[in-house]
Amino acid sequence: MSNKIKHSGIIESINATAMRVRIVQSSACSRCSAASHCSASESKEKIIEVFQPAGNHRVGDEVVLVASNAVGARAVVLGFGLPFVIMVVAVWLLSRITNSEPLAALGGIGCLVPYYALLFLLRDKLRQTLSFSIEDE
Q1: Which neighbouring-strand residues pair with 65?
Q2: CB of 108 closer than 8 Å to CB of 91
Q3: For 28-97, what is the HEC assignment?
């Protein structure tokens, strides 16, 4: 099994710092023979920014975006895993301290505001470590 995440896409635009690549992201069941008759299959177009020099790539070129599975795992942990742990710990602590479930629930949700604000402030640093690149053919 490959240790890379790959998506085919088309370059939409190129500027001095990044290329914007349009990919079609589809659910796993969209390849099923019954997908056209089923409401569970879906596909969405997404724009991915690739922060690498354009080189000989031009707008309209078909490219393959790659990222390691470690990058995907890190993104999932930062986006979902760590916030979940923070919220559960905050709810547990606040319910012990205040003996009020509504206050503990609000505090658990409220503790995510500084976490996501910190992610927002660190977005440039995270962009360097959590990014796709274009596969050389």
Answers
A1: 7, 134
A2: yes
A3: HHHHCCCHHHCCCCCEEEEEEEECCCCCCCCCCCEEEEEEEHHHHHHHHHHHHHHHHHHHHHHHHHHHHH
Strands across the sheet containing 4-14:
43-50, 19-26, 4-14, 62-68, 133-134
Helices 82-98/101-110 angle, 10° precision = 150
Q: What are phi and psi of 99, to 5 degrees?
A: 55, 30
Burial class (CB in 10 A: 0-12, 13-18, 19+), 64: middle
Q: Is 57 within 8 Å of 10 (Cβ atoms)?
A: no
pLDDT tens for the chain, 137 residues long, are 567 888 888 888 888 888 888 888 766 655 566 556 665 556 778 888 888 777 788 888 888 888 888 888 898 999 999 999 999 999 999 999 999 999 999 999 999 999 999 999 998 888 878 888 887 66
Instruction: List beta partners, residue 134.
Output: 65
